[in-house]
From TrEMBL:
GO biological process: cellular respiration
Gene3D superfamilies, per the entry: 2.40.40.20, 3.40.50.740, Dimethylsulfoxide Reductase, domain 2
Domain Molybdopterin dinucleotide-binding: 655-761
Protein name: Formate dehydrogenase
Span of domain Molybdopterin oxidoreductase: 133-543
Signal peptide region: none
SUPFAM superfamilies xref list: ADC-like, Formate dehydrogenase/DMSO reductase, domains 1-3
This protein's record includes keyword NAD: no
Originating organism: Flagellimonas maritima
InterPro entries: Asp_de-COase-like_dom_sf, MopB_CT_YdeP, MoPterin_dinucl-bd_dom, Mopterin_OxRdtase, Mopterin_OxRdtse_a_bac, Prok_molybdopt-oxidoreductase
Length: 771
């Protein structure tokens, strides 16, 4: 009945732009900054919040962020200190995230009456994001180009009827982005399993999946091992492929403490990112008036994707010192706790030092400085992020880091360990509570015991496989708990077509984004509460990057009275779909989060007494590496790995491109047009390039070019970028995503983890269209 009424309209194809119109705005270039935060950071934060949501309201909101009785920052997953600062425990980019969420702008009935999806699709991602918060559920009917209001109950009916019409549960896909709470994610995973599929791709497939795979295989847990306090006693912190000044600004405070306590920092990056150079802590007088804290002691300017070459060289030099009689390695730890040490040493012998040096592109004397630090110290933390994970050999990049830590015995002790710095604020929690495409036998067993149904036992789709299935018509219903998969995934045109092939696409969302435009035949947007907003008297929980689970409770009036919380949305979908044919009381679980947490603690390990324990600063989940317990691994030992060198066969005119975040974006959400630290203002379509390479190609600063990639004989093109001379290794280029995702083929992803290769793309520069 309802379906018939809702499916009116012809099946005409919508004319949707998958990238938006490309226009240059007003580019200004300045010298890159040599420090992060300080007064400009405070100024930028205040500008963003006062423009979007009023200064007074925003400051009040910010004062509750990351406090024990407040809400968790919707930005990154960096942990809060035990004693949050009274001045406020947030950073410039956390303030921007809040400004985005608390904006006064609204996407309402009038908005969608005025603008068709065809028109909106021509806007840039920046313009789409700035249109505001979604106020009520909307439906896009087949053949229609205008979203129209729909009641919540009709929306749930549309989903239920589409799910019932599938030939197999595996024709549905349930995506999660890492902003969902533990409660919402658990219920969503439970629904997917009760429905009958493990098709639960999530944003970590594109993010730290390589870390999860590498760490599980070598250390027995897919998460990092350090806690925040370890930074305060670490002797050496090595930071590879991460830009904390922009993406995890509160990490700089931890690095500052490390330095104050005598620790040293080694940075491995193709770029000298400002935040890794010097930090002017905006909460300290010295940070406002003084020169701040110098962070990096040794900067190794590695070529893109040559970290394995560099790490092998570092280990070879450490072996040489050891052979000369210095005590470099922790032999007791190696003997007691590890497997495969000799294979690693044998493998290292195969490589020629000069060759490794040349490949890495790093200065030999600087490598010696790093080696000298590492040789003498054992409290070593290795941090990394997307600069290691998003390569063909992403998993081996991380295994090579683990090798170094194992040699040094830098695991299972204070001030030492692994630190994959997570992205989304609750991406780690979502995984812990059951969002994953693979099968966990023990989880299935406990779900069966607690809920009395049999969860499916076949592995489901990750993001790469899910998009392929939609493209090929094998999956017909796509649902997303947050996120913007069309813009975030590779091969934008291919991905957009995959979505448009679906019968139904559903987005549980706070704000409008491109995925809502490149929609399936029918599409639903289900508006939900943001982190900062009041969910009646209820609180949710999240897990930070270091495995600590704690509560989060918003206090702001919601953006609209028609918003529904994520757990309730999921519960309603489930109860409408199952009606009476279910062993789970969905409605009760979506309503009463304490009850939900009680059930979660029955199913999940480490969550006993969950509601109570998550109050205040929360509790740590069990972590075997912290205890130096490797009993789950072969022979009960941590595993050394033999890693190959990455291979890049470049033609003379080809470059390696890394796609990164600017200072004014959160993934596909564009806060502004500046990348202040790198000296870019007013424009995003830029390519950072070594000036020698520019000379060779006779390119001038700000000259307009296209980027092309050619994989499997298919040329892909990203149009109109301005060249920026920059301190980047020769042969390497850097540009922002999502604009460059059109260049990444859908079938280019890391071995084992399937993480798209978005940090080492082979590309050419084509200037002929603009001469
Ligand atoms: N404000 C803000 N905060 C965020 C995000 C955001 O978009 N904005 N995103 C969140 C998410 S989901 C994530 S995953 C994290 C991402 O955090 P990051 O991983 O810091 O983000 P990227 O901008 O991708 O930066 C990658 C860094 O790796 C370096 N790099 C690239 N290739 C290589 C390489 O081959 N070797 C080495 N050694 N370095 C390399 C780049 O120069 C850059 O400094 O941040 C989270 N926090
Ligand atoms: N080329 C290239 N591509 C990349 C990367 C890269 O470095 N290079 N990085 C990858 C990485 S690390 C990641 S994690 C992915 C990110 O992929 P996603 O997580 O899918 O993308 P986001 O841009 O974080 O999602 C933003 C959308 O989430 C919704 N949202 C925001 N807050 C909330 C909330 O509280 N609840 C709900 N329900 N929705 C909300 C809003 O609608 C917003 O538009 O992108 C990946 N793509
Ligand atoms: Mo991420």
């Amino acid at each position: 009945m309802i379906l018939a009424a809702l499916y009116m309209g012809d099946q005409k194809k919508r004319n949707i732009s998958v990238t938006g119109n490309i226009e240059f705005s007003d580019l200004k270039i300045t010298e890159p900054s040599d420090y992060a935060a300080g007064v400009p950071g405070i100024k930028a934060a205040l500008e963003h919040v006062s423009k979007e949501s009023g200064l007074f309201r925003s400051l009040k909101t910010l004062s509750q962020m990351n406090q024990k009785d407040g809400f968790d920052c919707p930005g990154c997953a960096w942990p809060d200190p035990e004693k949050p600062s009274k001045l406020g425990e947030y950073c410039e980019n956390g303030a921007k995230a809040i400004a985005e969420e608390t904006t006064f702008e609204r996407v309402d009935r009038e908005f969608f009456k005025k603008f068709s999806v065809e028109e909106i699709s021509k806007w840039t991602d920046y313009q789409i994001g700035k249109s505001g918060r979604i106020t009520e559920p909307f439906i896009l009917r087949p053949g229609s180009v205008h979203y129209e209001p729909v009641t919540w109950s009709d929306a749930f009916q549309v989903i239920a009827e589409n799910l019932h019409s599938l030939n197999s549960p595996d024709e549905a896909i349930f995506y999660t982005s890492g902003r969902s709470s533990n409660e919402a994610a658990f219920l969503y995973g439970l629904f997917s399993r009760a429905f009958g599929t493990n098709n639960m791709p999530d944003c970590s497939n594109m993010c730290h999946e390589s870390s999860g795979v590498a760490l599980s295989e070598t250390l027995g847990i897919g998460k990092g091992s350090v806690v925040l306090e370890d930074f305060y006693s670490a002797e050496v912190v090595m930071i590879l492929g991460q830009n904390p000044g922009t993406n995890h600004p509160r990490m700089l405070t931890a690095l500052q403490k490390c330095k104050e306590n005598g620790g040293k920092i080694i940075t491995v990056n193709p770029l000298m990112e400002s935040g890794l150079n010097r930090f002017k802590n905006p909460q300290q007088v010295n940070g406002i008036l003084g020169t701040g804290t110098h962070l990096t002691d040794v900067f190794l300017q590695v070529k893109i994707n040559q970290d394995v070459s560099l790490l092998k060289l570092i280990m070879k030099r450490l072996v040489t010192l050891e052979e000369k009689g210095e005590k470099v390695f922790d032999h007791e730890f190696i003997k007691e706790k590890t497997n495969g040490h000799q294979s690693l040493l044998d493998d290292l012998k195969r490589y020629d030092e000069d060759k490794l040096l040349e490949l890495s592109g790093v200065d030999s004397a600087q490598i010696d400085e790093a080696v000298a630090l590492l040789a003498k110290k054992s409290k070593i933390i290795i941090c990394w992020a997307m600069g290691l994970t998003q390569h063909k050999n992403g998993v081996e990049n991380i295994k090579e880091c683990v090798n170094l830590l194992l040699l040094k015995g830098s695991l299972g002790k204070e001030g030492a360990g692994t630190c994959p710095v997570r992205g989304h604020s609750n991406v780690q929690g979502d995984r812990s509570v059951g969002i994953m495409h693979y099968v966990s036998k023990s989880l299935n067993k406990s779900i069966k015991e607690a809920f009395n149904f049999d969860p499916p036992e076949e592995e489901g789709y990750d993001t790469v496989k899910g998009i392929k299935a939609m493209y090929e018509g094998k999956a017909k219903v796509f649902m997303a708990l947050g996120g913007n998969l069309v813009s975030a995934a590779s091969d934008t045109e291919y991905t957009a077509r995959a979505f448009q092939n679906c019968d139904l696409t559903v987005s549980v969302s706070t704000k409008l984004n491109r995925t809502h435009l490149t929609a399936g035949k029918t599409a639903l947007i289900l508006p939900t509460l943001g982190r900062s907003e009041m969910d009646r008297e209820r609180f949710v929980t999240v897990e930070n990057s270091m495995g600590k689970v704690h509560q989060s409770q918003g206090r702001l009036e919601p953006a609209s009275e028609h918003l529904m919380s994520e757990p309730e949305i999921v519960a309603n979908i489930a109860s409408t779909y199952f009606d009476t044919e279910t062993t789970v009381d969905w409605k009760a679980l979506g309503e009463d989060y304490n009850l939900l947490r009680e059930k979660m603690s029955e199913v999940l390990t480490g969550y006993q007494n969950y509601s109570k324990k998550s109050e205040g600063s929360g509790f740590y989940l069990p972590n075997n590496v912290r205890e130096a317990d490797f009993s789950k691994l072969p022979d009960g030992r941590a595993q050394f790995s033999v890693c190959k060198l990455p291979e890049h066969f470049l033609e003379k005119d080809e470059f390696i491109l890394m796609t990164v975040r600017s200072h004014d974006q959160f993934n596909t959400t564009i806060y502004g047009m500046n990348d202040r630290y790198r000296g870019i203002h007013g424009e995003r379509r830029v390519i950072f390039m070594n000036s020698k390479d520019m000379e060779n190609l006779r390119l001038k600063a700000e000259q307009v070019v296209d980027l092309t990639s050619n994989y499997s004989n298919k040329e892909r093109r990203a149009e109109k970028f301005k060249i920026i001379p920059y301190n980047i290794p020769p042969g390497n280029l850097c540009a922002y995503f999502p604009e460059t995702n059109v260049l990444v083929p859908n079938n280019l992803y890391a071995d084992k983890s399937n993480t798209p290769v978005s940090k080492s793309l082979t590309v050419k520069i084509d200037s002929k269209n603009y001469i």
